[in-house]
Design goal:
The longest helix is centred in the C-terminal third of the chain and has 21 residues. The chain contains 9 helices and 4 strands. The protein has a single domain, classed as Orthogonal Bundle (Hypothetical protein af1432), CATH 1.10.3210. Strands 1-2-3-4 form a 4-stranded mixed β-sheet.
Length: about 220
Amino acid sequence: MYTFEQIKKNEAINTYISKADESLKVLGYTEHSFAHVTKVATDAAYILQTLNFSEHDIELVKIAGYIHDIGNLVNRSEHSQSGAVMAFKILSDLGFPPSDIATVTTAIGNHDEGTGIAVNHIAAALILADKSDVRYTRVRNTDFKSFDIHDRVNYSVKKSMLKINEDKTIIKLKLDIDVHVSSVMDYFEIFLQRMIMCRKAAEHLGLKFKLIINEQQLI
């Protein structure tokens, strides 16, 4: 099987990630390029590693995290499904075992809040890692006066951390938000569905999900 490090060096995959992000930039979306997908891969791996899943599963979730957004190359709408189909073809051509292709494809196809469900532990870890990547460095709009609510909310997050407690019963998303840029209510207005998805993904892994903003527990 190809390793995560080999996937990261695959020219075709990296081209699809780059080109997909170019389209999202034109559409006004936050960064979905290598910084985002690498962080998602790393955080998803941290979740499964902390919960003592196998090295094989950890490798698969890193691969899923790295390629989960390539469907944006086709269209932002239904990008999780188109990305899953693309991943199926890519991994098949690379000679991945059918069971691994199925696992990664399922996770990618279920990572978006529109239709996604944490149907397995790979999908659950991917959802938690993806939906928790909120930070000011993802905002590409340089004109503060023209910020929309998504720009404001992301730009307000000066620090974010995803952490599982020592007892492995709780996963916390801790955010430091500049309330002069965006209110906590703004965050919930655009991210409530994602946080509900995170709660359900955490439950699939036997965890409770908690959202903490400026040291105050909100979920």
